[in-house]
Amino acid sequence: MTKKTRRPSPRRFAMECTSDPKHIGDVERFLQKMNESERLDDGTFYRVLVASTEAVNNAILHGNKSDPRKKVIVVCLVTRQAVKVQVRDEGGGFDPRRLPDPLDERNLLKEHGRGVFLMNSMTDRVKFRKLKRGMVVEMLIDLKRLR
Predict the structure, then answer these.
(1) Which residue ranges form the domains of the chain, and what is each CATH number?
(2) ∠119-29-129 over CA atoms, to 5°?
(3) Residue-wise over 18-51: b if at least 16 C-beta within 10 A, else e?
(4) Which of 51, 87, 128, 139 is the most exposed place for a label (fewest CB within 10 A)?
(5) Quick check: pTM over 0.70?
């Protein structure tokens, strides 16, 4: 009789903050604490950190318009195969296909407009979903391809 090894269930880490840009530091500390448990390699953790802080910054500033009554929720799911980060806001949502191209010559010197570009650059998949009340961005980093 062979012994089956159980796959560990996804580990879930979650935090909530109000829509104040000062909470970006809280998000960084939350992700560092998650990484203390999960021990991602430095490159993967950097990708998670950059993509997640960009998503939270966008949720606070653009989604929730820095309204302190509105919340941002960050959830990280970690498995052996992937790291999945979800960032949800309570804003009106947007159409990501209508964002200006940050690499267009007219946009290169602008101070804003690179958040979604960075999320796409740092992760293997980004999906935006409009909710009844808010928007959620789901980002995935495939750990299988790193092995």
Answers:
(1) 11-146 (3.30.565.10)
(2) 35
(3) bbeeebbebbeebbeebbeeeebeeebbebbbeb
(4) 128
(5) yes
